[in-house]
Fold this sequence. Notes:
This protein is an all-alpha fold and 176 residues long. Helices cover 68% and strands 0% of the residues. It has seven helices and no strands. Helix 2 packs across helix 3 (69-98), helix 3 (69-98) runs antiparallel to helix 4 (101-114) and helix 4 (101-114) runs antiparallel to helix 6 (128-152). The longest helix has 30 residues, at 69-98. The termini are far apart.
Amino acid sequence: MFADTPATVRPRLHALPSEPESSRSRALRAHPSNHQPSPGSQPQPPVDDDLVSRWDRLRLVLVNQGLSDREARTEVARIAAAEVWDEFAEELRRHRAAGRQSDANALAVGLRSMQGVTQPILRHPGDVTVARSALGRARRRLSHNGSLLDRLQERPNPLRRAEHAFRILEAFLRLA
C-alpha cells in the first residue's frame, strides 16, 4: 500500500486498545492506591477530649429530653456517624468541583467504607452492643482501605480521620 512513499512520510497506524484494556486502565487510574492529596487539603482531626466532651454534652441534652442513657448514647453515635459522613460528602463535592479527582476518589472509598453504619443503630435504638458492632465494622473497613492507601503513598490519607473518629466513638459507647 505504501510501497512508493518514503518511510518518513508513512503514517503510523496504531490499533486502538480493546474495551477491556481501556476499562482496566481507567479502573487502575481510579484505584484508591493512586490517591495523592493536594497540599493543604487535609483538615486536622479533632482532639479526643474535644469529641468526647462534645458527645457527652449532647448525651446529657438527650437525657434531659427524656431518653434513657443507653438510647441517648446510641442516638449520639448515630448523629456523630452521620456528621462524619456529611463531612466526607462535603469534602468530596469540593474536590470534584475543583477537579481534584484523585482526592475525590479517596473520599469516595471512605464513604463506601462508612456506608450503612447508621441503619443498625436506627433499627435498634438503645442497643449499645449493636451500635458498637456497626461502628467497629465501619472502622475496620476504613482501616483496611486506609492501609491500601498508606502502602503506596507517604502522604496522610483522609480515611484515617474517619477511622480515628469511629474509634473514639466506640470508646464513648463503652462508657455505658
